[in-house]
Amino acid sequence: MPERKNTFSSRRRRIVQRAVHSGWSWVQRTGSVTADRPGRFRFGAMGTGTRLAFPLGTVFGEPWIHLGAHCIIGEQVTLTAGLMPDLDLGPEPILRIGDGVVLGRGSHVIADTTVTIGDDCYFGPYVYITSTNHSYDDPHQPIGKQWPRMEPVSIGPGCWIGTGAVILPGARIGRNVVVAAGAVVRGAVPDHSVVAGAPARVVRSWDPVAGWQPPLRTPAPVPIPDGVTPEQLLALADLDEDEESTSGFAERAAGGEA
After folding, report:
1. Range of 69's domain?
2. Do residues 181 and 162 touch, judged by C-beta distance below 8 A?
3. Taken in order 180, 57, 26, 10, is the CA torsion positive or negative?
4. Are residues 138 and 229 in the same domain?
5. Rounded to whole angstroms, what are the CA distances from 17 to 12, 14, 25, 234?
6. Which candidate, 97, 101, 99, places its Cα nearest to that of 79?
7. 62's torsion region: left (phi>0), alpha (psi -120 to 50) or beta?
8. Residue 116 in contact with residue 154, Cβ under 8 Å?
9. First vs last Cα of the chain: how many Å apart?
10. Do 181 and 226 fall into the same domain?
11. Residue 242 pLDDT exceeds 90
């Protein structure tokens, strides 16, 4: 005999589930940090439209952190300036993030010395950027107890940093660079290049005459024509959905399923 379904229990579970989801959405909205609602944080600068999603990662040294406008800082992103909280780091900012930067969920930006991120950079989730590395000069001392080495890090505007990439101290990444997922970057990376591997190496670069070398294997995306409005794009998306539904119905009808 099949078990009888407890309709009341199922309905109550759905109600509780909706309440939990609604409550969590409220917590996320309320807990997010913006220039208008900074909470306990006092960043050195925070531009219009920038938001740190809740729940936040570790954040300290915020007087020495400057955030540009219209940035999206994902959940559980760590932003730190200095080796530890409550240090006086001087008059200049330590961590500078430009306008329109997107930092993916779970990323870390550890700025014990200067870290600069240019405008319109996009970072996948779980990217790790640090200006500090452990030293192991003394073979008789635990590595964690030896004084670390620090070198500034700079990332030029317009870059795309893939999921799980690691940017090490001293990295100087140029403009419009693609860093492949999982790459480990140190040293200089030229403008308009693609790097991959650990340690990262240039695997593709842009030549003003020959274009991308080696050539791209996929055709370039077709740009949106000038003058097309967002409303027209939404209407086009709805039209595509209607056509897919009609096509699916026709295929089922042809197969005798209608």
Report:
1. 30-218
2. yes
3. positive
4. no
5. 8, 5, 12, 31
6. 97
7. alpha
8. yes
9. 34
10. no
11. no
Shared domain for 213 and 254, answered yes or no, is no
pLDDT for 2? 58
* pLDDT single digits (tens) 205-214: 999 999 999 9
Residue 222 carries which DSSP code?
A: P
- Is the pLDDT at 189 greater than 80, yes or no? yes
Write the CA distances from 35 to 32, 49, 70, 76, 186, integer angstroms.
10, 8, 11, 19, 33
User: Same domain for 206 and 255?
Assistant: no
Do 89 and 64 contact (CB within 8 A), yes or no?
yes
Is 136 buried (19+), middle (13-18) or exposed (0-12) by CB count in 10 A? exposed
pLDDT of residue 24: 86
Annotated catalytic residues are 134
Q: Rounded to whole angstroms, what are the CA distances from 148 to 106, 128, 217?
A: 24, 17, 43
Q: What is the pTM of this model?
A: 0.80
Is there a contact between 106 and 143 (Cβ–Cβ < 8 Å)? no
Q: Quote the Cα angle for 67-70-71, to 5°.
A: 55
Amino acid at 118: G
User: Burial level of 167, CB count in 10 A (0-12/13-18/19+)?
Assistant: buried
Please name which of 82, 77, 50, 47 lies closest in space to residue 63, comparing C-alpha atoms. 82
Q: What's the rounded Cα separation, in Å, for the pair 9 and 117?
A: 52
Answer yes or no: do 106 and 197 share one domain: yes
SS3 17: helix
Residue found under tokens 């010395």: 113
